[in-house]
Amino acid sequence: MWYGVSTIAARFLNYLVTPYLTNVLLSEDYGKMSLVYSVLPFLNVLFTYGLETAFFRFSNKEENKASIYNTTATSIIISTILLGGVLLFFHQQLATFAGITNYPELIKLSIIIIMIDTLAVIPFAKLRYDGRPRKYALAKVTGIIAYLFFTFFFLSVCYVKAKANPGSFWNSIVDINKNPVYYIVLANLIQAIITLLFLYKEVFSIRFKIDFKLWRQIMVYSMPMIIVGMGGVVNETLDRIMLKWWVPGDEIFKEQQVAIYSACYKLSILITLFIQAFRMGAEPFFFKQAGSENPQRTYARVMKFFVIIISIMFLVVALFLPVWRYFIASKLWDGLVVVPILLLANMFLGIYYNLSIWYKLGHKTSPGAYITIAGALLTIAINYLFVPRFGYIASAWATFFCYGTMMVMSYVWGQKVYRIPYAWKKLVAYMVIAVILFFIHKAVIALTANLVIQFAAGAVLLSAFVWFISQVERKEFAKLPVIGKYFNK
Fold first, then answer.
1. pTM of structure
2. So where are the chain's domains?
């Protein structure tokens, strides 16, 4: 919960800048920014190459605890310097790939950001493994606050004053001829530096030495995770780049379509926040549970609560979309139709993260690579075939079918290798009921334009779902701390 709350706080602060940016920037500039941030996850996978997951996996062995930190940290420092140098040399080609050929400096800044972020990966993993959530939370949240401050400072103070007073002090801070997206990425760079400074003790505790026998074992485990990570990035972010490639129209129209889709994607905020928070806390938890008695039962219970929470979150966003839409500028509301599709897609993704424990626990991580490749190929195929005709709606459905396919593949394959007694019929029923309630609400909207009635209907449907779940899972909730006493009456 500590890691989850800190991650939610950090990500929520980051989301708060979305309505500001969508209003301050032109649609095409917001599209450029989205394209830049579509490249970053690819670079992140290359730079970290699965070492974070490997750190958790091998730290569980007593004989590795003395050397796992130094080995993984030294490996990632050396590879970051080498890979960063190569990518900086080819930054122009990366800019062309991202569809921002005229702004290579954005890619150069992005590479430096990834290099700094990568240096913090293993120290952050150590904090998580050692159970030090307060320092973890402080570093994350402070970094985000710095990003928000400098974004506002550059765009709404320096940029405005420099334009109003040519040749003034403010012109020495910002160049008004640069695209404003440059200063958003620069604020991100400042964030990365400040975050790393918070980890100076963990960084300076690294001893630059590698246990090559252990390192070879780690590489065998982590190499397939590169494919898993790269395929995951294709599924999560490449659709923005493919939308830019294949949607018909001129350059400005393409970037506007990317902006609409990217902004509406962020309206799945509650589910994506929870999934990110869950992953931060769940991964080390799952590995530690592996040695306990009957861990499969624990994994099944976690999955049940996870599905219940994301089903409620789906309704909270989908039934009250007229409220959530104010997180983005009104000029981008044309894309709101994709939000329920993306909400469901992210529900599938969260379930897949739960299911993936079966191959992460073993030394054979290649099944994760095969599943992710299948999802990536499906994403590319659907976008290629349907984006020219349906635009960003095709990208949303590609995400839906990609994550749905990965979820099903992981469940079927995983049950053959490492059986976990998931109550899958009940969990599917919960999600189906949530979707049915959404369509009932759509019918109410079709019958009346009165927002009060629409919100009242949404509140009734959401309350009915929560009550229904509480009755079905009464015995399960009674076992929980804090809230259990209310179900024992």
1. 0.72
2. 2-447
